[in-house]
Structure formats: structure tokens, C-alpha cells
Amino acid sequence: GTCLLWAMRQPMPRWQLPVTLGLLFLTLGAGYWQSAATTTRWHAQRGGMTFALIQPSLVRDLTPQALVDGISDAEILRRQRTLIALSRRSVALPDAYRDGAPLILWPESALPDPPSFSPDVMSMSRTLQSNVLIGAVAYLPPTFDRPRNSAFLLGPQGFELGRYDKIHLVPFGEFVPLRRGVNWLREQHIVPDVRENDMAPGDAWTPLTVNNYRIGVGICFESTVSAIARCYARQHVQYLVYLTNDAWLHRTSAVQQHFNHARFRALETGLPVARVASTGISGAIAPDGRSVCEIPTYAMDTRTVHLAPGAPGTVYTCVGWLFGPFCLLASLLLLAWELCRSRQKSSRNSTS
Questions:
Q1: Residue 241's closest CA among 121, 125, 131?
Q2: How far is CA 270 from the centre of its chain?
Q3: CA angle, corner 220, sides to 242 and 325, nearest 5?
């Protein structure tokens, strides 16, 4: 409001500019203090969990025909062997098991079917005595006719401990909005072919439990939605984990932008974040948004990182999106009040 009045060359009381600047610096100072307090609280936490980040850098041909044809069985087997080999390497470090079984993270759509369909994957989790969170496409009840984009959690015994089904689906990538109209446009050759069947969304953002820690899982662009992270934080999770496939973005700046979204989710909630992407950027993020480690784009590599549990407690987790609209409303009210006062003063001067 103050900036608009200044730009419009409207008169302002002397107190308005100092008060506005004071509130601005107070807000910035409060944000800095909250970030510092969150980091201090995080460093004071004991225990934690080891995350093994697996980035296979296996690029799928993204032409329309390749997406229709799918991946051959031989290619699926090759990719699975690569993921297993990288997982074995990631937990070979001596401190990987210092606070219990590590959590190995595979990216979104790492498998074309649930891991229970693959004896090799289940055997790997038993052999490595590790938890494994695997992105997979699965036909599950009650929607056997439509696949789900899911994350499956296997325990050290090789059995499924939990599952998260993606809720926020990508328009046109995972479902077609206004399908009837789009189908007509496709028949008229106005738009290209679209997917035949929509994917089925999940039902709830339910945390998974690993080594007695609660973990909030998001898939793909769910890391860009603040409300999902806040929902998990209000359920007292201690970690946020994101699985994604950013091969669609190639080497564009969108890859870094997508990674930065996860950093904002850490800042908003005060929670550490672990993120794996099929072709990068994979990494771990501290509650203050600082990148702890990263795997560069298109590098076939792993990182093993130990993260203390987070303790959510920020302004955003408490009041959510209300702070922004409150500031906007206050600015509009102040602007309206100043304009009315200025007009009244001008009318009095003209009558006198």
C-alpha cells in the first residue's frame, strides 16, 4: 500500500513510511530467526536415519510411440539390475547401519509393477537388511482397470510395510481433463494423441513408518504443492521424501527449479528432505533449505547421508496460507483508507 501511494504521488503521514519499513525488517528478522531456531532444534535432535539415494540415470525414449509401446522385458531387467547394483554399493559404507536399517530410495516409476512381483528386489532388501522405498506403476484394488503411481515400502525382511498412492496427478501426463472435449479435438486432428486411460489417484496423505520414524512421501510435482508438505507436518512426520522422474525436463533449468521446490518445502515445514530423481537432481536438504548433498544431472551415482529427525514447527505449519492474504488485505485496507483521507482533504481545500 505504501509503495502504491508513493508511486501515485499521494500524500502520506510521516509515520507511514517508517512503520512500513519497520514491519518489513521485522518480518525478515522473524523469518531469519525462525530458520535459525529450526536449524538449532534439528542439530539438537538425537538419533536419525540413513538415506541411500539411488540415481540410475536411465533415460527412457520419450517419443509418443515409445510411450505407447512401453519398455521391453529385457530393458526392464537391465534397469532393475542397475538399481540393485547401485543399492548394494550405497549401503557398503560402515556407518550405513549406525542407527538401524537404512532407507534406500528408488525414483518414481523405477519398476513397471509392484516390487512384490520381483523376487530379486525382495531378495535384495533381505540380503542388505534394508528398508527400500520404490516408485512403481501398479494396478491395485479397487481400480484394477486404471494404474496408480505409487511408492512401495519394503522392510528388511522383504515384505511390504506400506504404500503411498500419488494424489495430485499431472494433467495430460497422468489424466486428461475435459476428456470428452479433448477426444473430439483429437478426432479432428487439432491436438495430438493423448493417453487412453487416466491413472487413479490415491485417497489420503498418510505417513509411512520406518524405524519408528514417520515419513511423508510425495511423488513427482507434489513437491511443488506447499499444502501437501504442511499436511504431513501437521501429522508430526519427521522427514519428507520425494520420488520423481525429471527425465521429461532433460537438461533445462526446470530440473534445478524442481529441486529448489523441495528446498522451499524444507524451509516451510522445518523438516529435512530426501529426494531422488531418475536422472537428477537427487539430494538431501536441511530444514533451513541448505543442500546437504547433491547428485548432478545425468550422473549414475549414489549418495548415503545420515539425517537427524526433524521437528516441524513454523508459522506456515500453524496458520498455513492465511499469512499472505492477511498481508494483502491489510495493504488494500491501508491503501483505501489513505485514498479516502486524501480525497476528503482535497474536497475540504476546494470548498475553502
A1: 131
A2: 14
A3: 90
Task: Kindly report, residue by residue over 302-325, the tens digit of the pLDDT.
Answer: 999 999 898 877 777 777 666 667
Place of cell 540415481: 55
Largest distance between two CA atoms of the chain: 92
Q: Minimal CA–CA distance to 295: which of 227, 328, 246?
A: 246
Cα-to-chain-centroid distance, residue 66: 27
Closest alpha carbon to 263 in 294, 289, 225: 289
Decide: 52 and 304 in contact? Cβ < 8 Å.
yes
Please name the residues in contact with 54: beta carbons below 8 A apart, sequence gap of 6 or more: 83, 86, 87, 90, 104, 105, 106, 107, 276, 282, 302
What's the pTM?
0.80
Instruction: Report the alpha-carbon distance of residue 134 to residue 278 in Å, rounded.
Output: 12
How distant, in Å, are the alpha carbons of 112, 133, 193, 202, 300 from that of 199?
A: 14, 21, 16, 10, 29
Length of the chain: 352
171-193 residue pLDDT tens: 776 767 766 665 655 655 655 55
232: confidence class by pLDDT, cuts 50, 70, 90: very high
